[in-house]
Amino acid sequence: MNNRNIWEKVTQKKVKDIDKFSAEYIDFISDNKTERECCDAGVQMLEEAGYVELSKVIKAGRKLKAGDKIYTTQMNKSIAAFHIGKRPLTEGLNILGAHIDSPRLDIKQNPLYEDGGFTLLDTHYYGGVKKYQWVTIPLAIHGVVVKKDGSITEINIGEDADDPVFFISDLLIHLAQKQMEKKASEVIEGEALDVIIGNMPLKESKDKETKDAVKGNILKLLKSQYDIDEEDFESAELEVVPAGRAREAGIDRSMILGYGHDDRVCAYPSLRALIDTPTCERTTCAILVDKEEIGSVGATGMRSRFFANAVAEIINLSTDNYSDILLSRCMANSYMLSSDVNAGFDPTYADKFEKKNASYLGNGMALIKFTGSRGKSGSNDANAEYIAKLRNILDKSGVIYQTAELGKVDIGGGGTIAYILALYGMNVIDCGIAVLNMHAPWEAISKADLYETYLGYKTFLKDIE
What is the mean pLDDT of residues 54-60? Predict the structure, then answer.
């Protein structure tokens, strides 16, 4: 059932299209490893495509009409973009929703210390990670430092060829007998994920030893290079991520190995699909949100009122008689693809998957009727009628897709933003790309799946009704 490998029937022209789109995506995820960077890049893409910031439209006091392109952001970490359609907004939106945060290590607010001749940064891991995967690999630091006067210093160290990188140490095998006896969740403790950033002491004029001289040297460098004082870490958001660019993988170059596929591999084609789709009958929309990896909480997560408020503003600019009932009708009549990744079948761990209902790399966009865990706990379970609509438009457009769930029934599952939008009464289904090594520092996806999902997202925006 729908287990069609894209590469088996692909034309040479489509191979070129796949490679071109994949190269553009590799640039996107290599250059944008935090939610702030993704938001900034998304805004640039939207503005180049003619989208106008919502606040400017409100300030100008003009009404919206079919063909208008609008976007708004939330705290530089989430985006909602709209391409106004020909039909009234009360008939609903066609929504692509993805998240742009990824598992990582966050630097604490009082992080800097010296021990054993090293200067280290204390971290707190973000999202579901296998902690042992983060040691002994090259790491980069991305983020912002906001000073008391409101000035912002952007930090990006470890990505350029001549940049230094950072690392977390691990115990050498010769001394690790007891460590090796621990279960995987305890081999590396959370408080041991401290990043080594220096080893050179500060020299005084007479070469006299100084207490915390290595830390002193780091502080001197931070001040001279970035005008940052130690106290400025209190109002900083700095993220430790794997250093280096995403790369083509496999001798056949069929895959992409990179950091943050979950969920930028769905966010990028969502945004591109919105930008590349002409004015439709229904208003089309892409939302890229933060905090999914920790439950979609906070002002920038999907549980906030950010998206509903944006839709309310759009409706208000499209009618002379706004009321909350119009917002309710719009949301209830909307269709959504919760664009998120699924666990790709891994032959090394085949016993964790039910093969008939697993997603496979190379077999196209994955429709996931339900996620959740075990007894579908915490899941949005899409209606059969909605899935039938999707099957119909995808088959007519020749989009290759597969249906899947996340692992065997009793083993686990996962969560997405789908259930949050379903609270408004709209039809929602999870729909994304199969990923190997999910939540690891380096994840793998199929180029063909990436491009096919982009085509599927365009078909959804244009044809679902």
Answer: 96
- Cβ–Cβ contacts within 10 Å for residue 459, how many? 22
At 312 the three-state DSSP class reads helix
What is the distance between the alpha carbons of residues 389 and 382, in angstroms, rounded to a whole number? Answer: 12
The token duo for 298 is 């906070």
Nearest of 409, 428, 412 to residue 420 by alpha carbon: 428
Report the alpha-carbon distance of residue 91 to residue 102 in Å, rounded: 34
The two tokens of residue 235 are 């109002």
Q: What is the mean pLDDT of residues 228-256?
A: 97
Strand 427-432 with 365-368, pairing: antiparallel
What's phi and psi for 444, nearest 5 deg? -125, 140
CA distance 294 to 346: 25
Q: How many CB atoms sit inside 10 A of residue 377's CB?
A: 10
Alpha-carbon distances of 274 from 50, 247, 449, 456, rounded to whole Å: 12, 26, 18, 12
Cis peptide before 340 (omega within 30 of 0): no
Cα–Cα distance measured from residue 242 to residue 140, given in angstroms and rounded to the nearest whole number: 6
Q: Which two tokens stand for residue 195?
A: 């990043």
Report pLDDT digits (tens) over 6-56: 999 899 999 999 999 999 999 999 999 999 999 999 999 999 999 999 999
Can you say how many angstroms the Cα of residue 79 is from the centroid of all Cα atoms in its chain? Answer: 12
| H or E element in which residue 222 lies | helix 213-226
- Of the chain, the percentage scoring pLDDT greater than 90 comes to 90
Integer-rounded Cα radius of gyration of the chain: 24
Distance CA 101, CA 440 (A): 14
Residues in Cβ contact with 379 at an 8 Å cutoff, skipping those fewer than 6 apart: 370, 371, 372, 413, 415, 419
Buried b (16+ CB within 10 A) or exposed e, 269-306: bbbbbbbebeebebbbbbbbbbbbbeebebebbbbbeb
For the chain, domains (ranges, CATH) are 6-102+259-463 (3.40.630.10), 104-242 (2.30.250.10)
115, containing H or E segment: strand 104-115
pTM recorded for the entire structure: 0.95
Which of 448, 450, 369 is closest to 406 using CA atoms? 369
CA 293 to chain centroid, in Å, comes to 9
Dihedrals φ, ψ of 251, to 5°? Answer: -65, -20
Output the furthest CA–CA distance in the chain (Å, rounded): 80
The whole-angstrom distance between residue 238's C-alpha and the CA centroid of its chain comes to 17
Residue 231 banded pLDDT, cuts 50, 70, 90: very high
32 vs 62: CA distance, rounded Å: 34
What is the secondary structure of 180-203 as a DSSP string?
HTS-HHHHS-GGG-PEEEE-PPPP
